[in-house]
Amino acid sequence: MSLYLRNARFIDWQTLKIKTTHIKVDKGVSGGISFVDSIPDLDAGDNSARVIDCKGKFVTKAFGCGHHHIYSTLARGMPAPRKIPTNFQEILTYIWWHVDKCLDKDMIEASALASALYCAKNGITFIIDHHASPFNIEGSLSTIADAFDKVGVSHLLCYELSDRDGAGPREAGLAEHERYLAGGGQGHIGLHASFTVGDELLKSSVDLAIKHGTGLHIHVAEDKADQVACLKDHNKRVVKRLHDAGGLDLPQTILGHCIHLDDEEKEIIRSTGSWVVQNTESNLNNNVGLANYNQISEKIMLGTDGMHCDMLRSAKATFLSGQPVEGTGMDTAYARFRNVHHYIQSAGFKGDAGNNLVVLDYDSPTELTNENFLGHFIYGINSSHVETVVAQGEVIVEDRVLKTADESEILAYARQMGDKLWEAMKKS
Ligand SMILES: [Zn+2]
Description:
The protein has 428 residues and is an alpha/beta fold. Helix content is 39%, strand content 20%. Strands 1, 2, 3, 4, 5, 14, 15, 16 and 17 form a 9-stranded mixed β-sheet that branches.
């Protein structure tokens, strides 16, 4: 059954040109859209099509998240940590490494389902996730993939390899990548960060990435401590270390954060063409500083770092917090918001074709035009305007309700698993 969006005001996500049109949406992982003059008349008994009336509404390409962590989903509102962290290392030790060590398979599933639900309702149809559950690694990527598939969002997954928990989790993490990628899963080789990854693991990861035709996905210089440890342990800075190991020769590689880089590192990133993910709100939350990404390159995309599931919010934060640091323009914030599509396409991944769309029920006190779109993007349009979401040509959210699974069941399951996680954390 074909899908038609009737009388849509279509915003081309690249040219920002707006036209009122009917849209025929093809199904499938590589499906596109076409503008048509007429659509089937359902009143006349033509049941060959599904038609959604978009009169007065805007339709544009759906959104993507360049760096996410479903593993943090059940942390919302959890009891305070044993020690209130005073620096980045303590945030990891007392919060995130406490959470991820307690995650079991069901908690991972619930986290992925709830996170995908929120992403979908906020217009995100492609998620690049970086997962950690050191004592439940085997099968974890498939658990996440199945949950994302159930909700209907495309994905690019990896497991956060590190030496922080010893040889067992390290080897299990490598094996999980091998199993998932050899089975046809779409993913990176994930690494936590330079300061928790030894040379042997880094080499194994690059080798595995080359074997599977993918890249690394790693946090880079999120805090100064990453550089301090790298200089102490390896006598070089983080980007140089990754480059020397061959990690930046892989065009699919993603470097998260890149807050504390020197000029040589910025030049390396420029010359290798590696992609960087900016996660402004997370950087503010962890008080690790903010970067001037203009000094690095134009290949900057945005992520949530697992703080939330709302890329429009990430774009606004990028604009506002970028003012004192790099004078971020509205055009730059929008370009970074949309760069995830360029990354996915250039890296050769699937699931972000033209048939991923959002319908925005956006009433405004002023007219939205090609010329002033960016002003509406920063100051007006937000996730509450996302009414309907189409992923790979299928309607996954309609009238702000998930259609592919039961929202209340997902959230009830998540709350149950959240209680279980918090209990487990008390005992560990
Ligand atoms: Zn992260």
